[in-house]
Design goal:
With 423 residues, the chain is α+β, with helices and mostly antiparallel strands. It has one domain. It contains 16 helices and 15 strands. The strands form 4 sheets. Strands 7-6-8-9-13-14-5-15 form an 8-stranded mixed β-sheet. The protein has a 3-stranded antiparallel β-sheet with strand order 10-11-12. It has a two-stranded antiparallel ribbon with strand order 1-2. Strand 8, helix 7 and strand 9 form a beta-alpha-beta unit. Helix 9 crosses helix 16.
Length: 423
């Protein structure tokens, strides 16, 4: 299908923001309420640059794996040089981070050793605590105050339009954001050349901005009275934390997982990338380690630049890390890997959304396919208006424990045999 511009692509949009900075007439913007890009067609030149930048329509995994030389390859995690599990040796970073503190530690190490001049990351929007905005952190204090996960759609690549005066920046983002930067660099967008380090975060699925609104309605809290929201914390595994002038409310991770299923964006359902396969360094929760107060990070090093940074941090004892076996990593995320790498083919067909990835369909066992289909139907039910209404009147403190046991039962039924390593 031919599109005039990104305003026509509908459910293919990942909300990554890549189309916004590349537009020569600045006629593209992101509407946070609809969570879609808006195009002013009166200003549009029909130049097609936004479509060239769009990774929602497709991203060639096979071709882009050539970014990394002399690497090993695994079907589930992509191209890699070395695998580690580790965490920061800085207690202050551990206390303020979501899990393990590696992303913050890497940024501070690179800043201190003059490998970067700043980092593109996100902060709570002071004018709208329910939302977040992109900023460039230039010093240690700014990085330390911005090291928390935010679970809603953010057009992170949009900020590239404002970095022309910068020299060397790190970029921290989800798989769709990392792909967006790689695409902009490939097509020669000038400002993207400023980014010389990509740190990618694992992402099962994101969630709509409406998920946060749903929580507030359930808790009967006026959005205008919210002072601060934390999506993970205060310790690992953490949970949803909300602060008003008079109250501090904490919800379990299970309750948050349950809400996520009601508000998964359609495009996230056909995403193929769990581990940010095109970052220099990819980071995620290390479920393979014994649970601890501050959590651990899995570290997938993909580029020579990334390897040099991690080895330098180990030498200076900035972090603790030990090498991680590939099978251990793959087996520690059975649900996410099967969802992204196996169930995607069925969902694309059912949803009639076909991003072009240039990937080969793996062999899928009947039991796995049945589970993926049932899970797909479950998400469809969770998205329905009657179910959303029903769960909006049931206290979240009740729904959390209920979902915890349902999730454990499904894991025992379908993931007793972990996803096997496929080369």
């Amino acid at each position: 299908m031919k599109y005039k511009n990104v305003g026509d692509i509908g459910n293919y949009c990942t909300s990554c923001g890549a189309c916004i900075p590349i537009c020569p007439t600045k006629c593209i913007s992101f509407d946070k309420n609809s969570e879609k890009v808006i195009v002013d067609n009166k200003k549009c030149l029909n130049c097609g640059l936004c479509l060239k930048a769009c990774t929602g329509l497709g991203f060639d995994f096979k071709k882009n794996n050539k970014l990394f030389k002399d690497n090993r390859y695994n079907y589930f995690i992509g191209s890699y040089k070395k695998l580690f599990v580790g965490r920061s040796n800085n207690l202050d970073i551990l206390k303020s981070s979501t899990s393990g503190g590696l992303a913050t530690s890497v940024l501070l190490y690179c800043l201190k050793n003059k490998l970067i001049d700043g980092a593109i990351t996100t902060i709570d929007d002071p004018e709208d605590p329910l939302n977040a905005k992109c900023i460039i952190a230039h010093n240690e204090e700014e990085i330390l105050t911005r090291c928390k996960s935010r679970y809603h759609l953010i057009p992170l690549a949009e900020i590239l339009k404002d970095i022309s005066k910068e020299k060397r920046l790190a970029f921290v983002g989800l798989p769709c954001h990392i792909q967006a930067v790689r695409r902009l660099q490939k097509i020669g967008y000038k400002n993207s050349k400023v980014i010389n380090l990509l740190i990618g975060l694992y992402c099962g699925q994101n969630q709509s901005y409406n998920a946060t609104k749903f929580i507030l309605r359930n808790l009967k809290i006026d959005p205008l009275k919210v002072e601060k929201i934390s999506y993970r914390g205060p310790k690992w595994l953490g949970g949803f934390n909300l602060k008003t002038k008079k109250r501090l409310i904490r919800l379990s991770k299970e309750a948050c997982d349950f809400i996520n299923y009601m508000f998964i964006p359609k495009r996230c359902m056909v995403c193929y990338d769990f581990t940010s396969e095109f970052a220099d360094i990819s980071l995620g929760d290390a479920w393979s380690k014994k649970p601890s107060e501050y959590g651990w990070n899995e570290i997938i090093v993909r580029s020579n630049k990334g390897l040099k940074i991690i080895e330098g941090m180990l030498k200076k004892k900035e972090i603790y890390a030990e090498e991680l076996d590939l099978n251990t990593l793959v087996k520690s995320h059975p649900g996410n890997f099967d969802f992204k790498k196996k169930g995607i083919f069925m969902r694309m067909k059912r949803m009639k959304i076909f991003p072009s990835y240039n990937i080969k369909k793996p062999e899928i066992k009947k039991k796995e396919l049945v589970f993926q289909y049932l899970f797909f139907k479950f998400i469809g039910v969770m998205h329905s208006k009657p179910v959303r209404f029903l769960f909006s009147i049931i206290p979240l403190r009740v729904l959390g424990p209920l979902f915890y046991y349902l999730k454990r039962i499904s894991l025992l039924m379908f993931f007793k045999r972990r996803s096997k390593n496929e080369k």
